[in-house]
Amino acid sequence: MNAGPNAFANLQDRDAEMAVLGGILLRPEMLSILPKLETDDFFDPNHKAVFAAMRNLEAAQRPIDRVTVGDALGPRADVMVWDAVWGDLVLRVPSPEMVEEYAGIVRRHRVARDFLRVCGDSVARVSRGEDAAEAMDQLQGALFKIAAGETDNRAKTFGQLVKDEFGHIERDSAARERGETVHVGMPSGIESLDRLTGGIPFGLVTLLMARPGQGKTTLAMRLSWAAWTHGNDTPHVVTYEDGGRSFGQRLIAQHSGVATELVRSREFNRSEFDSIKKHARDMTTRGDVLIRGNGMPVEELCRTIKAARRRRTGKVGASGERTVSRLLVIDYFQLIPLPKMHGGTKNDRMGETSKRLVDLAGTEDIAVVLCCQLNRDVEKRDGNGVAKLTDLRDCGELEQDGKLAIAPHRDPKAPNRLELHVIKNHNGKAGVFAEAYWHLATHTI
């Protein structure tokens, strides 16, 4: 089912390819206005070789002409090809100034060939008995890259990484000069915490670790609100524990100031009801997304998030537009159904789940937050009851997979005071904590 060379016979334009090469020979400076044109955009293998030679000469800052291109081709066989091709090239250029237009034709044909190829590969995989949902997910990713004109960006030189970071520094410095608050990661909505961590880091997994009743879900909602309000993002919260109505009731309480218990029981008075109606617009225009994850395995979860990002990727990063799911919060990790593994222990399978989420964070460059349950050792231990990494329940892999670990802690003697202990920080201080205020009645931080 793979698309062979014959399938591409009509998806090329020999004249356009030769017009591009000939135009560059006549006006070598035109190569500089074609930064996105690649060797693989050409269909004819001879044309590929010639264009690659031109790019090599450009990189070496050498002249581009008949002699230098022939020399750059190297082996005698390639030189003979060059001699055969040379005569036609300069005759196939209606206008050297139109090289950019000709390059667009070449590029469009390459996109069509890539589309046919990835679709054919996907059909072939399913025909061989591979999982159709997994094949569909990979097809979506491949089609996105084609539509965006992207290549695989996993490999970058260290120099390019520095250039990218300089760009971020310049952007952030300009924002600070305008009086804007700058976060390296996704803002948490808790300024004291962001000062310690720089925000929730992108491309990595962050752990929120606590026993029941210490504020994991309330923190998850705060992170989602901050990403929507301050992070210009459409975050996703996946709940494996509470239902949608529970989140809706808490949201009403948080926005209106009416106690969650009253919202649930409908025992509010007239002024409290008026307060709910007053804040209706703020509540109903929230676009952050809640996904009920009951029974959803990690593979389906990853596919769901990737699909959401692909559907909206055209707006990602564009000026004035929101990003999509650059923050993913999962509440909570230990309730994700275990993947099927032959001979694996529970810890092994939870470790596999953790690795899948680490890969999701890295490949999509998003902030993934895992709310995690702790074992009872933290309650038995003498001292202030602050969690340690070794208190994570059921899965030792999380200790190394989480690059930032935050443990919310409440002192029974001061229930409205919330300490957010940073017990692991991949790029900063650990063993410190931020203070926040928790309004118990409305589940608000």
What is the secondary structure topology, with strand pairs?
Layout: H1 14-26, H2 45-59, H3 66-73, H4 76-89, H5 99-127, H6 132-148, H7 158-177, H8 191-197, E1 205-210, H9 216-229, E2 233-239, H10 244-256, H11 260-265, H12 270-278, H13 280-284, E3 289-292, H14 298-311, E4 323-331, H15 346-364, E5 367-373, H16 377-380, H17 397-401, E6 402-411, E7 414-425, E8 432-437
Parallel strand pairs: 1-5, 1-6, 2-3, 2-4, 4-5
Antiparallel strand pairs: 6-7, 7-8
Helix pairs in contact: 1-5, 2-3, 3-4, 5-6, 6-14, 10-12, 14-15
Q: Strand tally, please?
A: 8
N→C terminal distance = 56 Å
Helix percent band: 40-55%
SSE pattern: HHHHHHHHEHEHHHHEHEHEHHEEE
Q: How much strand content do the residues show?
A: 5-15%
Average the pLDDT over all residues and give the rounded result.
82
Shape: elongated
Strand order of the largest sheet: 3-2-4-5-1-6-7-8
Structural class: alpha/beta
Annotation field: number of helices: 17
Uncertain spans = 313-320
Main beta-sheet annotation: 8 strands, mixed
Structure description:
The structure is a single chain. The chain is 48% helix and 14% strand. By secondary structure, the chain is an alpha/beta fold. An eight-stranded mixed beta sheet has the order 3-2-4-5-1-6-7-8, sandwiched between helices. β7 and β8 form a beta hairpin. α1 packs across α5, α3 runs antiparallel to α4 and α6 runs parallel beside α14.
